[in-house]
Amino acid sequence: MNKPDDILIRNCIKNNIKNLNSVFVFPTQICASMWVDKALEFSGNQCIALERFVAWDDFKGSSIRSQHQDKNSIPATMRDIFAENIVLANSKAPFLKNIIVEEFSKSASGFASWISNVLPSLSMWKNNFEKSGADADDEDKDFLELYNRYKKFLDDNNLFDPAWETPPFNSDGKKYFIFFPEILMDYAEYKTILESSPDIELISIPEEMKETVSPYGHLYSNTRNELKDVCHYLWQMHEEKNIPWNKIAISVPDLDTYGPYLARDLDIYEIPHVQKNGKPLSSSGIGSLFSQLLGCYSEKFSYDSLKTLLLNKELPWVEPEVNNMMIQFGRENNCICSYEYNDNQIDVWEESFKYPVDSKSVERLIPFYRKLKSAVTKIIESKTFEEIRTNYFSFREKFFDFTNDNFPEENEKILSRCVSELGTLIDLESDFKQTGIFEIGSPYSFFCSYLDGKMYVPQNASNGVQVLPYRTAGCAPFDVHVIVDASQSGISVVYKQLSFLRDDKRRRLGFTDDSNITQNFILLYAMNSQQEVLFTCSEKTIEGYSFTNSYLTQLDHRPGKNKNTDDFAVNDSYVCERDSYLNNSKENFPLKLYRAEKAGFEKWLLMSEKDGTMSENSLELISEKVRKRFVSDGKVKVSVTDMKSFYGCPRSFLFKKVYKLEQSDSAATLVNQYAIGNVNHLILELFFKELRTKNMALEYDEAAASIPELHKKLLVESVYNGILQSEYSHLSKQLFLTTRTAIETSIIDSVTVLSQSFNGYKVFQVEETYELHNEEKKYFFKSKVDCLLSSPDGELVLIDFKTTENSVPKNLYWDGEESVPDFQLPVYKYVLENQDKPLKIDACCFYSIRECGLKIAYSKIESIQPTRKSDFNEKFEMTTGRCLSLAEDYAEYVLNMDFSPSIINLDPSDCTSCEFKSVCRRTFAVSPCRD
Q1: CA–CA separation, 687 vs 766, rounded Å?
Q2: 507-521 burial, b for 16+ CB within 10 Å, e for fewer?
Q3: Is the pLDDT of residue 658 over 90?
Q4: Could you tell me which residues come within 8 angstroms of residue 215 by beta carbon, excluding any fewer than 6 positions away?
Q5: Does the model's pTM come out above 0.85?
Q6: To which H or E segment does residue 769 belong?
Q7: Which of 835, 841, 871, 867 is nearest to 853 (CA)?
Q8: SS3 for 575-634, per residue?
Q9: Alpha-carbon span 887 to 637, nearest angstrom
Q10: What are 532-566's pLDDT values in tens digits?
Q11: Alpha-carbon distance 268 to 262, whole Å?
């Protein structure tokens, strides 16, 4: 490739720099800043005024006056204000028919930014529309209405829009040199006025260069290889050609996606770098404060909106512990959102403060919440930008502590910039208030949208490779330009004039060809890179597949027959180290290691010295927890729930029951997944206790296929009392009460079917806890039985209630070998029958409340038998023996502190679905051990 050079720019500057009225206009500020430094090297001048090297955007705002030298250029923000005002006016008395359909005019605030972007192009549209002679439809009439209103606003306020100006361009005595205007997105709007002025000289890319220059595009198999070889290339330039790091630029089309991966590789290869891409002020945690305040207000202080605000760790909260308490309270009390009930707006937080699940923090939270709500409401309901600022400073005085040492300086800069932007709006409001243009509905909502469009570039004092968005540095004179992801889609640049119109309308106005300036940018990068520019791309990218841009000459780095060039890697330390270990050879071991290699080796060395055993102190702490939780008077307390958890996985049991580990979850739900089941259990408990107190039996009327009305009445009362006595939050109880009728129907149906099976049976016990001690054993049983029914003949039936059929165990019986059966009914029966006053159990069964299903596991009662009769009683007795054996083993394991998963035969699928897999040594090896 014939490398182009930057002689066009150099000669222009060199030949005109002595003329103090010469001003050089570059596409971006970074290009202007770098060329003013570069000019000191070759122009012969000892100093140069910075204002003579300007960016295109600054030139538009300050230099274009055209015929109206006495008018001021409209600030871009005023376009946004004007558009907001238009949308508000149209919502009150619709005058737009097509752009905003009348039926949606009251909810069209989202169109304001689009209208603001259209305004600069309306003059061009009007001129071309009038020339076309086309009949105006509703859309054209809408654009004409916008044009007339915008023009009147400009004229009334002594303003002009630079994009609307027409020749001649009246000189201000300066000579302007505009470099490469063809790459500017909005140049077409200013083309006529600039080309007609003798005081403006346009410097463009020579046409012959487009015919002769095609830079190389290096194609890699994937992005990882691409970025790695870019790092090799940078080291090559730095070491072999002595190019300083800060004279190198990497341009990236999609910096949001590629930035983290590129930064990682640059860090790995110890290449200093500075990422200079602007992000909206509102995109950072500290900058999102204002949108989070708006979210709280608009969502009526819902749990999620308050959680987002209060858990924003980038804000310097005065009392962060109160924030955490507030979120914890909201989660426990299900404060999801406020609601309307009987035409009254209910604040869910205030309601929950009256009926808290736990009242210990309420006294502290009530004043905090009310103060926060009042302060936020004042900010959002501010009528002017000045009022917003006043209320904001009042808010921060109450809730923020900027003397906190943990508050980063960068966050303070971002917040100050947000307040500064608010100051800009206040100044404009003061200057134009009399025009009425600031009637925009909600000033605060506009301010939040305004921050979304304001970009912030951190001022990083460190030096290094400049990582920039593609297109921003095409004219900048870096020693080395590197462009990654130079694929067909990545670096293609096409501009459409009047893009707000449909294509058929654009063609009617004479806009038949779009401006494809992809090649122009490629040539600019090649021209301004002092060394040969490097374009790279990958076949397999981060987000899909791509191919080399068609304006580049492809060099293939992919392995295989198509490869026609070598990589830039020479003695890559990471590769050499890996190969040396794999080949057990020291011959090619790198002489120098990167910091990451050294740190990794030191950590490996440290871990390899450990034997994987626990320290005595750690073991003692765990033993203490186990004894406190499971051991009483030297014996292990055995419950069905604990055994089931242990034989599911001993280590999971340790994490859950001893360490009390749980997934971090700050989300609030209206009711948890077990709530209705627990409420149903409580309802049945209350009902059966009433039957027992009144000495009433279960009854079923065969003729009426129903239970007695008195039983139904007791059930209805039990439903109401069960909901109120449940341990759930006030809001959850209110929800259950709204569905009370459905719950009553479900419970009555369930008890009806149960009564049909146990007609005439009385309640013997409900929710009773039993213990069974044996002096010869190292353990004792503790069991809580749901219900015992007694037949007219005195036979006892043990019933355990389940919410649904899916909750009924599938492994009722032991099938031999090493299997683990369900413990519940066998253990309960054994415990009851071995009391000091034994209770002979004649039948054991599960009953699913929702499906009204009875599953019999054991029965000596003739009238209560399973559908398929077999040796189920013998199986049940064998299962009981197996359960007792497992209980004996369980006690031994607990006393010996043995919680290894190797105790049982775990299926790999059990580990895959385990909630603790991320901290388990069966998943990750810790030191040399994996268990």
Answers
A1: 10
A2: ebbebeeebebbbbb
A3: no
A4: 1, 522, 525, 526, 532, 533, 535, 552, 553
A5: no
A6: strand 762-773
A7: 867
A8: HHHHHHHHCCCCCCCCCCCCHHHHHHHHHHHHHHCCCCCCCHHHHHHHHHHHHHHHEECC
A9: 10
A10: 999 999 999 988 899 999 999 999 999 886 777 88
A11: 10
How far is 781 from 637, CA to CA, in rounded Å?
6
- Angstrom distance (rounded) from CA 451 to CA 291: 9
**Residue 731, exposed/middle/buried by CB under 10 A (0-12, 13-18, 19+)?**
buried
Tens of pLDDT, residues 336-358? 888 887 788 889 999 999 988 88
> For 122-199, where are the E strands, in sequence order?
159-160, 175-179
User: CA 37, 40, 43: angle at the middle one, nearest 5?
Assistant: 135
Name which of 10, 4, 55, 53 is nearest 181 in CA terms.
55
Q: Which amino acid is at 873?
A: N
Residues comprising the chain, all counted: 931
For 158-172, 306-320, 707-721, which range has the lowest pLDDT when averaged over its residues? 158-172
Contacts of 653 (CB under 8 A, 6+ apart): 642, 645, 646, 899
Identify the burial level of 256 via C-beta atoms within 10 angstroms of its C-beta, where 0-12 means exposed, 13-18 middle and 19 or more buried. Answer: exposed
CA distance 890 to 899: 10
Residue 415: count other Cβ atoms within 10 Å of its Cβ: 23
DSSP 8-state code for residue 238: H
Rounded Cα–Cα distance for residues 479 and 476 (Å): 9
Inter-residue contact 753 to 852 (CB < 8 Å) = yes
The DSSP bridge pattern shows strands 72-73 and 159-160 to be parallel
* Nearest alpha-carbon partner for 100 in 81, 89, 113, 87: 87
Residue at token pair 């080309």: 195
Task: For residue 831, give both structure tokens.
Answer: 């415990």
Alpha helices (H) in 866-921, listed in sequence order: 872-895, 908-912
In order of 362, 372, 597, the CA distances from 367 in angstroms are 9, 8, 54
Compute CA distances 344 → 189, 338, 339, 738, whole Å: 55, 11, 8, 16
CA atoms of 491 and 484, how far apart (whole Å): 9
Long-range CB contacts (within 8 A, 24+) of 672-678? 675/726, 675/728, 675/732, 676/736, 676/803, 677/803, 677/804, 677/807, 677/849, 678/726
Which tokens belong to 39? 């000019």
Beta bridge partners of 579: none
Q: To which H or E segment does residue 790 belong?
A: strand 779-790
Pairing status of strand 248-252 against strand 465-469? parallel
Kind of pairing between the strands at 216-222 and 200-203: unpaired
Q: How far is CA 715 from CA 91, 697, 744, 754, 800, in A?
A: 56, 14, 7, 13, 19
Residue 244: strand pairing partners: none
